[in-house]
Design brief:
Helix content is 88%, strand content 0%. With 57 residues, it is mainly alpha-helical. The radius of gyration is 13 Å and the shape is elongated.
Length: 57
Amino acid sequence: MALQGHMQELSEKHKKLQDLIETEMNHPDWDEVRVAALKKEKLRIKDELERLRSSVH
């Protein structure tokens, strides 16, 4: 099913963004602007996933 594949892809992107955020914040001179942008993208993906999940049910 194409929708399931898309949702899986979004889930993987969400996880990768979380990993990037954690990696960035572990550096002593981490970039607040970059982390904020990553968090914003992560939230956008989460919202899209929730929207897709609710449309399936």
